[in-house]
Write a structure and sequence with these properties.
The protein is α+β, with helices and mostly antiparallel strands. It has four helices and seven strands. 18% of the residues are buried.
């Protein structure tokens, strides 16, 4: 037989140990999730002129290779590979007059959003001429069709988005399986605790 004092001590220790384990589990969950959130925010800031202000912005996935030409070292956006993620800052009518040769803009073209480099700006007639770095075609773009200017790009973030889009069923199935597995493990642990 176990002395009563020991039974009382064990009964007092068990709830405290359970609380400690719950805290450890919470910390073990919160720290990685916080780290992932910080990495995502900093990555997005890196293509957003270093800012965490995402107002008047749009993120696009580049699906063609029209801007995947020889890097233009003299410009802020040197090239945009197919599959890259770009940050577009919406621009005002006044900023359209100030567009420079070499700026990469987003504009509406044949019911699609396109992203090409400005090669000419004609403020008097309110249009720009654009061309993809990997294309010989030139587009005459009226100011009213210009949405914004590309201010940053990231190929690796685009690769992650592309992978997620192509494998969404696999990813969702894996997450559901993981949650079911964690639920089953927790149920088995609780069953063991109640039986002992």
């Amino acid at each position: 037989r176990v002395p009563e004092e020991i039974v009382v001590e064990i009964a007092e220790i068990l709830p405290e140990e359970r609380r400690r384990l719950k805290r450890r589990r919470a910390i073990a969950t919160v720290i990685p999730l916080t780290a992932v959130a910080v990495i995502i925010l900093l990555s997005m800031a890196s293509i957003n002129e270093g800012s965490l202000d995402f107002t008047n912005r749009e993120v696009d996935l580049i699906v063609t290779d029209s801007m995947d030409g020889e890097p233009k070292e003299q410009y802020a956006i040197k090239t945009i590979p197919k599959g890259a993620l770009v940050m577009v800052r919406y621009i005002s009518d006044q900023e359209k007059y100030e567009l420079q040769v070499g700026d990469v803009i987003q504009f509406n073209y044949k019911n699609l959003k396109d992203h090409h480099r400005v090669i000419e700006n004609n403020p008097d007639e309110r249009y720009v001429v654009t061309k993809g770095d990997n294309s010989s075609a030139r587009e005459h773009v009226p100011y009213e069709d210009i949405n914004g200017m590309v201010i940053g790009e990231s190929k690796w973030m685009g690769d992650i988005v592309t992978f997620a889009k192509k494998n969404i069923i696999l990813i969702v199935g894996g997450l559901i399986s993981l949650l079911i597995g964690l639920f089953l493990l927790d149920s088995m642990r609780r069953d063991r605790q109640t039986s002992s």
